[in-house]
Design a protein that fits this description.
about 190 residues, alpha+beta, two-stranded antiparallel ribbon, 4 helices
């Protein structure tokens, strides 16, 4: 793989890994929620308070059936207030919300960098593991050839049983190394996805 192709693929991987990240989607939803709350706080500077009260009171002498002297009193009151200078008391709440938004945006940026770093690390690991497979397969072919030659020598009486056991052990170790190299490569493929 050429260096410029690898660099282009790394850039492509970075572009693909960012939108597919659930961590960033979570941060985006949280930022949206904090933004809505900040808008509510800012609107509260301009919202008036309206209240009302209606009360009726009856008083007098007599019984429930016969009412000789009854007086009724009705009270109605409405209040409308618009705070001209309450904004100073609301500023700390607004500042706190803005600080939370800035903090969450910084955490999102850090998460973005971590996601990009993970993608590039997996990409570099993938390219590092690929030659290991090729080299372990070459070593496996050499170990198989060595085992066959030692076995042939043993059948002719030119090698001892220890030589054939050593060659067989080396062959098994090399098969394990080849399997480990393939497994490690596949781990990098999965982590890159």
């Amino acid at each position: 793989v050429r260096a410029d192709d690898a660099e282009r693929f790394g850039d492509f991987l970075r572009l693909v890994s960012v939108p597919a990240s659930p961590e960033l989607a979570s941060f985006d939803f949280a930022l949206s929620a904090f933004g809505i709350e900040l808008e509510r706080i800012e609107r509260s500077f301009f919202l008036p308070e309206i209240s009302g009260l209606i009360r009726y009171r009856r008083s007098g002498q007599g019984t429930e059936r016969f009412d000789f002297t009854t007086q009724g009193e009705t009270l109605a009151a409405f209040s409308f207030s618009y705070s001209l200078y309450e904004g100073g008391f609301r500023e700390p709440e607004r500042g706190e919300q803005e600080a939370l938004i800035r903090q969450l945006a910084a955490q999102r940026e850090r998460a973005l960098q971590i996601i990009e770093q993970r993608a590039l690390t997996a990409f570099n690991g993938l390219f590092a593991e690929h030659p290991n497979i090729r080299l372990s397969r070459r070593a496996l072919a050499a170990a198989e050839q060595n085992f066959e030659s030692v076995r042939e020598k043993y059948s002719k009486g030119a090698a001892s049983i220890l030589d054939i056991l050593d060659a067989q052990s080396a062959l098994l170790r090399q098969r394990q190394q080849e399997a480990i190299a393939v497994y490690s490569y596949l781990q990098q493929v999965v982590s890159m996805q």
